[in-house]
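Kindly inspect this one:
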Amino acid sequence: MEEKLLPKVSFATVGDEEVNQRVDNYLIKMLKGVPRTRIYKAIRSGEVRVNGSRVKVSHRLSREDRIRIPPVRISGNPREITLPQDWLDRIPVLFEDSHLLVVDKPSGLAVHGGTGMPFGLIEGLRHLRPELTRLELVHRLDRETSGCLMLAKDRVSLLHLQDQLGEKRSILKRYLGLVKGAWAGTRQVIDLKLDRVRAAGREKRMGASENGKEARSIVWPVRRFREATQVEVELLTGRTHQVRVHCAESGYPIAGDRMYGDRAFNATMGKLGLKRLFLHAHRLTLVHPGTHKALTVEAPLPPPLLRVLDTLSP
């Protein structure tokens, strides 16, 4: 595979189209052929700077920001994405128009490629639908979580939806999960700040921390079983692994959760046919970026999860 080296530091200036874009996403698009791991390392080490200052990978850009780009090796022959013929059939479309695409992401598929993964959902969609030249993820779901995932088809729609996810917090996100034990009471507000904690390997692990970022969830029981409870969760913030950590920290780990869950409970649920994390983003309510009217999109529980519920004793 041929490679070329950008031999010296270069600079780029943020234009109107890139305003409010994350710096990592900006560089991933600009430096096609550079591994994501190299881009993230360059940002975290300070090789990449914005207006002379170090920034986090989640830093959002402003108009006229000046970005320092370090020397990097760019592959002359980027890896070709090879997808099964029925790949697109596995990604049900829940809603689509000229502004917005909402799909039902299956469990086990990452939203984007990374270490050990040549592609994720966004790369696959761009490959199979090349006419969507400005397709971008509005938010993310964990690899093992299924359900509603939003993608914007143009920059204006992306900014409009990100604004709703940000300070306005006007997008309603609800999940269905199965947790260990009998949920005590009814509606419960969980207000635990979350921060990244040290963990073996490269897995991102979160934990409750007084110095963490604000994280609030509302949880209530939907259906009670002898050994478990089906719950619905409304997110008031959108932190990494928020539902999983909040449930685990409250004493009700989610079934099938290998990072924060209970091994014995997971083994019991496995015998009943559960082969994945029992967490599903089943409803989104938002203000449509084009019509400015309320839009609700729902994704039904996948059949494998329904079958697990059917096996549980009331």
The chain has three domains: 3-75, 88-160, 170-311. The chain is about 20% helix and 25% strand.
